[in-house]
Amino acid sequence: MPTQLEVRDVCVAYGDNTIVREVSFVLEEGIIGCLLGPSGCGKTTLLRAIAGFEPISHGEILLHGHRVSAPWSTLPPEQRRVGMVFQDFALFPHLSVARNVAFGLQGLGRAERGQRVAELLDLVGLRHAAHQYPHELSGGMQQRVALARAMAPRPQILLLDEPFSSIDAELREQLAREVRDLLKREGVTAILVTHDQLEAFAMADQIGVIANGRVRQWGTGFGLYHEPADRFVADFIGQGVLLPAVVVDETRVKTELGRVAGSKPHGLSPGTLAEVLIRPDDMLYDETSPRRAVVVERAFRGAEYLYQLRLASGTEVLCLVPSHHQHAIGEEIGIRLEADHLVVFPCETDEPSRPASLADPVGQ
Description:
Layout: E1 3-14, E2 17-28, E3 32-36, H1 43-51, E4 58-63, E5 66-70, E6 73-74, E7 82-85, H2 97-102, H3 110-123, H4 139-151, E8 157-161, H5 169-186, E9 190-194, H6 197-203, E10 206-211, E11 214-219, H7 221-226, H8 231-236, E12 241-249, E13 252-255, E14 258-261, E15 273-278, E16 283-285, E17 292-300, E18 304-310, E19 316-322, E20 332-337, E21 344-346
Parallel strand pairs: 3-9, 3-10, 7-8, 8-9
Antiparallel strand pairs: 1-2, 1-4, 4-5, 5-6, 10-11, 12-13, 12-15, 13-14, 15-21, 16-20, 17-18, 17-20, 18-19
């Protein structure tokens, strides 16, 4: 597929304060990307630089093979064929839904403009609301109007800046899936900015995790979750804990819960002190297991409970258990570790505390 967006070694700075640092990534036509990270990490600044609202201090940005941003030259936003959906939707309150969608189509004839508006309202399921005003619509409906308006001029790329932030939390993931379906139907290339990983997973094909202005890892949601590049990504994506471990060989480590084998070699020599990432789905409830843990906290999630468990060493782990197995805080339950994707990091300190059960790991 042809490349729609290329960001090459881009930096954005305000005086001596660098907000975006040496960011590079490529987005192919029809792909939905996401810039994911905590508040203040630089993701919205980078999005605004792609749109042309912010100059860059280093590197270059290309749209459809043409340079649109460099330190010495910035193509104005209106000449980039970029659509933008803002956090607050920015709909015109005095215009009907149809006239909001038609706003960016002033260069078309009346019949062609009407046809494009009808086509988009059908696409977002709002033909019946064409003559209503924004204040008469729900937040989700307003979001779809803003999306239709941004898509109307057929932009080369669509930029979405926290578009679900004003929507009720329980609807965000559903709306993200709906928007993804709409964009895929139209073949639109897009970038979403969000701090919510569930939105990112529901909507994006490719996700870049950003911290302190840098992209720490770029990949699929599956890859970020199961093969995080560093501790920040491991901590930010999903839930999990780092369990003390000692390396046995290229593919195995020994933990307090026994040896764990993984499909990905970690490159640490035998005997190295390390930490292995344990996700809630790696920890299985098993009352026949001799390994026990005490329930510290629990959260009901419908089909499952998320239990926080304390091991004999005092280390706490998370475990998902079917909700028909209800255990009280303070109760001891059986568990076993079953991790398919081994994610191991070297210890950050020279002499970390470790359970006595990890002594002589290679020989046991």
